[in-house]
Amino acid sequence: MFLMRPARAEDQDTVRELVEVRSQWLERRGLPGWRDSARQLAARCGTHQGTVWLLERAGQVIGHTTVRRDFGPPWGWTPEELAEPALYLSDTVTHPAHRDAEPGSLMSLWAVDRAAREGRAWVRRDCTSTAVVAHWAARGFAVVHDVPGPPRRVFTLARRAERQAWLRDVLRVETPAPAADSPTPAHGGALAVVRPPARVRCPGTER
């Protein structure tokens, strides 16, 4: 059984180590790591309630992702698309020793289910690598826009929200308390509406 839970302040060292391990894995394969982002990602634990989430397997953190709600990045989306209810995934980092479980895919499917439970239409994400595009396309995400930049080429992707009933057999979700100024939705356990700082751009295939 996997556990999906909100990050807490005491998770900072764990998240920093996760990013460093992933960076080592990438660098050994001649790919750029993201060591410079480790401290920034770790510092967000516990400071943005319901925005930073961790995936655990047998008590070990094997995945990290950021979930943004009710707003999205300004690049690559039309005003009409930004007005649609959606969840936005970013900064996904996974432990390479647990690739057999595809933690990145599991976290994205949790978000697809979560969005459907909240009555949202889409789960969206973006990336800058064609290899990452192919990875997520194989998992149900379609390219919506190919933005040439500057400063860099960005692909925006989306997958329709839909219930994933089978997740209850493999994934337990720890629900955060709603923020004091956030309304509780009909489905309960909402992600708090908190605007995070500028996102970290993470290279490498996230899975």
TrEMBL record:
UniProt xrefs under InterPro entries: Acyl_CoA_acyltransferase (IPR016181), GNAT_dom (IPR000182)
Domain N-acetyltransferase: start-end pairs: 2-162
PROSITE patterns referenced in this protein's UniProt entry, alphabetically: GNAT
Protein name: GNAT family N-acetyltransferase
Organism: Actinacidiphila acididurans
Lineage: Bacteria, Bacillati, Actinomycetota, Actinomycetes, Kitasatosporales
